[in-house]
Design goal:
Structural class: alpha/beta
Shape: globular
Helix content: 10-25%
Number of helices: 2
Order of helices and strands: HEEEEHEEEEEEEEEEEEE
Number of strands: 17
CATH architecture of the largest domain: 3 Solenoid
CATH topology of the largest domain: Pectate Lyase C-like
CATH class of the largest domain: Mainly Beta
Radius of gyration: 26 Å
Largest sheet: 17 strands, mixed
């Protein structure tokens, strides 16, 4: 009889522990649900060939036959990302009330694709990464702030890279007839050329430009304590 009572008490305690554990797990699930990643597809987009980023975003771009913009992030972040197209330019920004409130852990991811890309302007501390090959006539990249711009591979006639601030531009491979790189500030530009034509580098400040690969002609201008590293650049071959 005593054993039965002890067994009953042990079972009661075990049941109570299980119930508390389940209750805590449900609360954790509900709390994490508030920050669950949500996806929003932007529909009926007009044609665009330029991208402007106003704010901190993580943008992944890929050239394709179709136009597509998908916003991923917490529900709070996702619904405050503003996407619009004007003058063939895709503008991605945050509603004013969120510009100063959102921190780095709440940055939205934006996936973008389009048939053409001729320009990117980034204002802020976000990231723009172009996957695969971008094949275009002219490409104008302007990084204004502390963001990062990365391209896997570029094929174009004319390329222009302008960096002002503390950002970074990295191009794994580019084949271009004419390329100009301008850096104003403390940023860095790292570009690798493949069978390219004319290259001009202009540096104003304490930043660094690192160029390598093969070009036909190369000119440079440095003002300040920054440096242009062309030790691995082959010219005229």
């Amino acid at each position: 009889m005593i054993m039965n009572k002890m067994t009953f008490k042990l079972l009661a305690i075990l049941l109570a522990v299980v119930m508390v554990s389940c209750s805590s797990g449900e609360k954790m699930k509900n709390n994490s649900g508030d920050k669950a990643v949500a996806s929003r597809q932007v529909k009926e987009l007009p044609y665009f060939k330029r991208v402007i980023l106003n704010g901190a975003f993580e943008v992944c771009y890929e050239q394709s036959d179709s136009l597509n913009v998908e916003v991923r992030g917490s529900k709070e972040v996702g619904r405050n990302v503003v996407v619009k197209v004007e003058n063939e330019t895709l503008d991605i920004s945050l509603s004013n009330k969120d510009l100063l409130r959102l921190n780095r852990s709440q940055v939205a991811s934006v996936y973008v694709s389009s048939p053409d890309l001729v320009g990117v302007v980034m204002r802020g501390a976000g990231d723009f990464e172009a996957k695969g090959t971008v094949d275009t006539d002219t490409l104008d990249i302007q990084l204004l702030g502390a963001g990062n711009v990365e391209f896997d591979n570029i094929i174009c006639d004319n390329a222009y890279f302008f960096l002002r601030g503390a950002g970074n531009i990295e191009v794994d491979n580019i084949t271009s007839q004419n390329t100009e790189i301008q850096l104003m500030g403390v940023g860095e530009a790292d570009v690798n050329f493949v069978n390219s034509g004319n290259l001009k580098c202009v540096l104003r400040g304490v930043g660094n430009i690192d160029v390598e690969g093969d070009v036909r002609t190369f000119t440079k201008s440095v003002s300040g304590t920054g440096s242009i590293d062309a030790d691995k650049l082959r010219v005229g071959g």
